[in-house]
Design goal:
Oligomer: heterodimer
Number of strands of chain B: 11
Number of strands of chain A: 11
Radius of gyration of chain A: 13 Å
Strand content of chain B: over 45%
Number of helices of chain B: 0
Order of helices and strands of chain B: EEEEEEEEEEE
Helix content of chain A: under 10%
Number of helices of chain A: 0
Shape of chain B: globular
Helix content of chain B: under 10%
Largest interface: A-B, 25 and 23 residues
Distance between the termini of chain A: 41 Å
Largest sheet of chain B: 7 strands, mixed
Chain lengths: 110, 116
């Protein structure tokens, strides 16, 4: 089955700096890669996603890049704000199932 | 986005009892529902994939006789934790994929199960 690895597990940045979270996957059949933000005790919220036919996608301060050859994808958050503090999960999917990375706890220091 | 509800949000039960968790898609037909388990400060672990009208597909290591899943309609799936034990205490989250969509999943708010 699919194996998704995520790094780093924790990340602290100063407000206004950028944050980058990286994931790798093993199943070349995976073609959909969402990123979720989860606050403590709450449901994961989709923040951005990318499909295998696209190399990069951007939505305001958030961007995701995908390298299918190397089987890795990354989340980039620019101009970080304290409200960006949360746990972020990447996932990989073939369309039938979703496999999540181990999560990154992001802390934005005011 | 689509709305998925989950009930109850919290449940405390005695060891040996069974607990049923409901997951409902409120404004779309969910052909596929997923059940996840999440331990504190850990990732979501896929337990099973549930398709309406058919038996659930369980992930390796998940006991199907302990975690009973029923997806009887396009808007409701249930997870029953049978003969619960303290090690079953966890955060259980469902998610749904709508008819005609094969990717975007919508999560329920989760159920915090505590087994005494």
């Amino acid at each position: 089955g699919e194996n998704v690895e995520q790094h780093p597990s924790t990340l602290s940045v100063q407000e206004g700096d950028s944050a980058v979270i990286k994931c790798t996957y093993s199943d070349s059949a995976s073609n959909y890669f969402p990123w979720y933000k989860q606050e403590l005790g709450k449901r994961p919220q989709l923040i951005i996603d990318i499909r295998s036919n696209v190399g990069e996608k951007k939505d305001q301060r958030i961007a995701v890049t995908l390298n299918k050859t190397a089987k890795h994808f990354s989340l980039h958050i620019t101009e970080t704000q304290p409200e960006d503090s949360a746990v972020y999960f990447c996932a990989a999917s073939t369309g039938n199932q979703f496999y999540f990375g181990t999560g990154t706890s992001l802390t934005v220091i005011p | 986005g689509a709305v998925v509800s989950q009930h109850p949000s919290r449940v405390i039960c005695k060891s040996g009892t069974s607990v049923k968790i409901e997951c409902r898609s409120l404004d779309f037909q969910a052909t596929t529902m997923f059940w996840y388990r999440q331990f504190p400060k850990q990732s979501l672990m896929l337990m099973a994939t549930s398709n309406e009208g058919s038996k659930a597909t369980y992930e390796q290591g998940v006991e199907k006789d302990k975690f009973l899943i029923n997806h009887a309609s396009l808007t409701l799936s249930t997870l029953t934790v049978t003969s619960a034990h303290p090690e079953d205490s966890s955060f259980y989250i469902c998610s749904s994929i709508g008819a005609g969509r094969t990717d975007t999943q919508y999560f329920g708010p989760g159920t915090r199960l505590t087994v005494l």
